Amino acid sequence: MNIKENLEKIQETIAQAAQKSGRSPQEITLVAVTKTMPVEIIKQAISYGIRIIGENKIQEAKTKKAAITEEIKWHMIGHLQTNKVKDAVQIFDLIHSVDSLKLALEINKKAADLNKIMPILLEVNISQEPSKYGLTKDDTSYLLEKIAHLNNIKIKGLMTMAPYEAPETEIRKIFSELRELKNKIREQKINNIAMDYLSMGMSSDYHLAIEEGANMVRIGSALFS
Q1: CA distances (Å), 18 to each of 23, 206, 214, in order?
Q2: Sorting pLDDT into bands at 50, 70 and 90, what band is 1?
Q3: Cβ distance 205 to 171 under 8 Å?
Q4: C-alpha dihedral, 186 to 189 to 194 to 200, nearest 10°
Q5: What range does the domain containing 193 cover?
């Protein structure tokens, strides 16, 4: 595993994709997906410049965070159950995977208990795959109306995943649809809703995601291999 070399390749790909979309590489946020990775490997990645860690499971993140003292950000990128919200709000700096009114209300409640404003992204299942979590586009607009007034969450953007091994044209279509949805929401200028982040793209398709407007990518296997 050559993390340093892998990271340099990823940064080069990010720079090329950003240039194609008329943006600076500095506008693209890299989230290192560290599920199943041991603490020693994560610390190595941090030493090479990784500043955001993405974890899928609460207990795993809790254990790792206790062992890692470096100044980094922690993102929850996996499906979040309501009974795990208290820990999630304590551990993470951003939750990518809010996909229901029930979950948003629970996050708001637990964040209020901690006197914290919790930044969140709404997960949208653009591809409408039954195996994936996430809101439909119509549900996204409905949910935004219901939660915009909540005082202890801050809606910071949208997240999606494209199907594995789908044709490039299909992947691009999914990513461009989320970009268009983000722009539509931004135009409405709703209080407490800032469409700052478009989190889409993983190891196999992050270059396409950036070309289609992503400014946050979640990369695991391309970095840790």
Answers
A1: 5, 11, 9
A2: confident
A3: yes
A4: -20
A5: 3-219
**Contacts of residue 221, Cβ cutoff 8 Å, sequence gap at least 6:** 203
CB 6 within 8 Å of CB 222: yes
For the stretch 40-75, pLDDT in tens is 999 999 999 999 999 999 999 999 999 999 999 999
Six-digit token pair at 19? 């240039």
Residue 225 falls inside a structural domain: no
- Give domain status of residue 183, yes or no: yes
Q: What angle do CA 201, 154, 58 make, to 5 degrees?
A: 60
Answer whether residue 224 is part of any domain: no
- Are the beta carbons of 28 and 59 closer than 8 angstroms? no
CATH of residue 168's domain is 3.20.20.10
> Where is 28: in which H helix or E strand?
none
- Consecutive H or E run containing 207: helix 206-211
